[in-house]
Amino acid sequence: MDSSDRSERLATTTRRRVLKAAGTGVGLTALGTTASTGQQSDYWTVVALPDTQVYAKEGTPYGKDQTQWIADNADAENIAFVSHEGDVVDHGDDDAEWEYMDEAMATLDGVVPYATVTGNHDYATLWDRNSSVAKYREYFGPSRYEGRDWFGGAGPTNGDEGRDNLSTYQLFSAGGYDFLHLALEWEPPGTVDDPSTTLGWAQSVLDQYPDRATILTTHSYLRDEPQRRTRKLQEASEIGNTGQTVWEDLVSPNGQIFMVLCGHWHDGTGKSGGEAHQVSTNNAGSSVYELLANYQFRDDGGHGLLRCIEFRPGDGSDEPDRIQVRTYSPSTDEEQTDDDSQFGFDLDFDARFSSSSPGTPTPTATPDTPDIPTVTFQQGTDGYSGTTDTEIRAAEPEASYGTAETLSIDSSDPEGSGSTTQVLLRFDGIIGTDGGQIPPGSDVKQATVALETSDGGDGAAVHRLRTEWSADSTWASFDGGIQADGSQAVAEAVTRTGTVETDETSIDVTTSVQAWANGAQNAGWVFRPLGNDDWDIQSADSAIPPTLTVSYTPSETVAGDVDGDGDVDTDDVGRLQRSIAGEDVNVDRDAADVDGDGDVDIGDAVAARNLAGDNQ
Fold it and tell me: Are 323 and 309 in contact (CB under 8 A)?
């Protein structure tokens, strides 16, 4: 590291820095680290150790160099915590590799608080959570930290020796602030409302320490190429949660989490391979700093590169303070200076880390709201067979693509022709009173279509359709494709995806499904291209069909069920029509107002007929 830069900054101490430095010294001493005999620097550091699997496998000195440097510089760098990002070893059943890392990490014992998380390589069988994790537990299980005052605990515990207590939490203080660190196992399983699962256990820890700013570490979370949170599970049995789910369910709703650290991914090339960072906004409107580092595919596994995350009071430009990230190898004494290795974020430590910071949740031991019903529709799953999709092409106006496995959205196909291709998609039978359907009149909380993107492109504007069509429909059958003119399709797009990358693509279609629950005709959607870089998706006839997932709250009254027999059918439609015509018939007025506009009229009769569907 550049000591001259630090000396220069220490020479311009402000009152704010003096107070913070004093807080830092107290915090570190209380945690059992050795007090510095020299001048206390004005910043404190969290060190991230990326995947060490190559060092363990090959027995090179780099892993031990890393921890020795941390121990030697714990005072000079004010190192408050060390977080290992998983894949401690390369072969989870190899004692020699575990012994190497045991010795390496033991250098930190009694020096600084630290944590490890499981990676996919730390299981006896690669990618398989159901395989043995006994050696990880033996060397890096909770027993390793017994007697450490900074060790909070492990969980969840359900009596399953293979899975219990693989996640841990730690408490440390620095800069006058109190922090919580959550170390969650690879692709952490479960739901936040079930404390017997990893995510639920993590939520209970956050609820226990609502006043502590929190760093979360898990092995697989952010990818480097494409740079985004993971959208697909890699675990062999698909047990766990993706990075996107961890963000949506745990990180974003809990305002105290300000940073997520991870490793694992290394798809990029050159100096950017295995590195990524982004700033996301959580539910409380606060910034969350998400950082990926993994150098295993570089020469010798990266020559011991590690991450120094420095918290610098008073060094901000746009905000009072700054988090500065540096990437350094103790073995080579070289610092990486490219933009993916050296970067920072300005923020206000007092506003973000203090116990009264915005977004800090009130602790709740157990949720007092019931689970929201959720249904999923995917061709060939659980007996569902109602998905219809096709592609219509201006270049081949009479051609039908109802059985194609890949569908393309493009504004110039063939390339350079200027001829448009559109995709039509529909999920039939999703509204109704049978099990597995969404009851008419339900309040749709969230509806998402997941599409497997086989080739990324410029994306599409997605519009709700108002015209009937089938898998055999063609460009010509619509007299020149679908127009978003309010007649063939609703003029306002449900969403405009922007550029999409290869992998799973999720589209929010809540407004569409709500309209159908209220009795509008379900004709599905049209995907209209946003550019001439085609977007290819897998169809209902492929190995990965589109999936519609809907969460809803059922209405106490079933819309359209005017005779109160529990379903919407021909009897309801007929009775409603007679009532509208002025005949003296008994109808449930609340159920008769299908569209919810306060009146019962011909529009409600049409909506009831749509809801009746095959029951007519």
Answer: yes
Contact 240, 513 (CB under 8 A): no
First to last CA, the chain: 76
CB distance 569 to 434 below 8 Å: no
56, two tokens? 């363990």
* pLDDT tens string 77-105: 999 999 999 999 999 999 999 999 999 99
Specify the 3-state DSSP secondary structure of 307. strand
Q: Closest Cα partner for 413 from 475, 499, 461, 479?
A: 475
In sequence order, the 6+-apart residues with CB closer than 8 A to the CB of 238 are none
111 or 519: which leads in pLDDT: 111
Q: Whole-structure pTM over 0.70, yes or no?
A: no
**What backbone phi and psi angles, to 5 degrees, belong to 171?**
-120, 130
Q: What percent of the chain has pLDDT over 70?
A: 88
Q: Are 193 and 246 in contact (CB under 8 A)?
A: no
Q: Which residue has the higher pLDDT, 163 or 386?
A: 386
Distances, alpha carbon 221 to alpha carbons 43, 186, 246, 264, 448, in Å = 28, 9, 8, 8, 21
* Look-up of token digits 């995806």: 497
The tokens describing 247, both together, are 């963000």
Q: Write out the two tokens for 189.
A: 């399983």
Distance CA 233, CA 247 (A): 14
CA-closest candidate to residue 178, choices 153, 215, 142? 215
- In angstroms, rounded to a whole number, what is the distance separating the alpha carbons of residues 355 and 351? 9
Give the angle 124-130-134 at the CA atoms, nearest 5°. Answer: 45
Q: Which residues lie below 8 Å from residue 285, measured CB to CB, with a gap of 6+?
A: 358, 359
- Nearest 5°: the CA angle 104, 164, 144 is 30
* pLDDT tens per residue across span 12-32: 222 233 333 333 333 332 323
Coil, strand, or helix at residue 594? coil
Residues 604 and 592: beta-carbon distance below 8 Å: yes
